[in-house]
Amino acid sequence: PRCIWLTRHGESIDNIMGKIGGDAPLSPRGKRYGACLSRFIKHQRRENEVSRRLEAEAGMAISNPRERTVAVWTSMLTRTKETVEEFDPKEYDIKHMRFLNEIYAGICEGLSYNQIEQLYPEEFESRRINKLFYRYPGMGGESYLDVVQRLNPLIIELERMTSDLLIVTHRVVMRILLGYLMDIDRSKMPEMEVPLHTLYCVEPKPHGTVVRKFKWVE
Ligand code: F6P
């Protein structure tokens, strides 16, 4: 695609409580971010249409127009689905996919970092020492590298796409996708700053990737 928009979901109830994982709904503030996101993407599309019209008026038509659709991909979790609630399914090709789910924290799902440190001090320490390789214990528990693996098919699909794309996902998946798109060393990924309510626009260009960052100001 010409432009890949990437964001985490709006603030969830668990974000406020400092709990990891789970499937909490959005807070009122998180919902307002979702509404702002839908307005913003709509404006971006309108801008493209206006420049197309002005070019045509001047007598010049682009011969390889960019597809007009914007695909919207979210994870299967409530907080990303709720973030795109205001996107009109007639205007956007909206898909929810498991690939984009947050890292699964096994026995630590639903706990805060403090609780993990208290209940499972050795686990807490192993993760601190080697976050990239550390796999959460318990059924389905994942490591960053597991998530990298699960995202591979999605990255292949993403590179084939010609329409613009908005991905609404989670902290770990954002770190991995941004890390891949910006060619950041794997070892740096687990510590990348990826705040809530921040929208990244990633444009692959011949001389390297251009990234623009938009912060929601309420
Ligand atoms: O707190 C939000 C969250 O997305 C959790 O669900 C997830 O476990 C965590 O962030 C990942 O961040 P880190 O790898 O830094 O613990």
Bound molecules: 6-O-phosphono-beta-D-fructofuranose
Tell me the β content. Answer: 15-25%
Write the element-wise H/E pattern from the N-terminal end onward: EHHEHEHHHEHEE
Q: Characterize the overall form.
A: globular
Structural class: alpha/beta
Approximately how much helix is present in the residues? 25-40%
Count of β-strands: 6
Q: What is the number of helices?
A: 7
Mean pLDDT: 94
Show unreliable segments: none
The strand line-up of the biggest sheet is 3-2-4-1-5-6
Largest sheet: 6 strands, mixed
Rg (CA only): 19 Å
First-to-last CA distance: 30 Å
Describe the structure.
Keywords: ATP-binding, Kinase, Nucleotide-binding, Transferase. One of its GO terms (biological process) is fructose metabolic process. This is 6-phosphofructo-2-kinase-domain-containing protein. One of its GO terms (cellular component) is cytosol. With 218 residues, the protein is of the alpha/beta class. Helix content is 39%, strand content 17%. It has seven helices and six strands, in the order E-H-H-E-H-E-H-H-H-E-H-E-E. It has a six-stranded mixed beta sheet. The structure holds 6-O-phosphono-beta-D-fructofuranose. The site of 6-O-phosphono-beta-D-fructofuranose (F6P) has 9 residues, from helix 7.
Could you list some keywords that capture this structure?
218 residues; alpha/beta; 7 helices; binds 6-O-phosphono-beta-D-fructofuranose; 6-phosphofructo-2-kinase-domain-containing protein
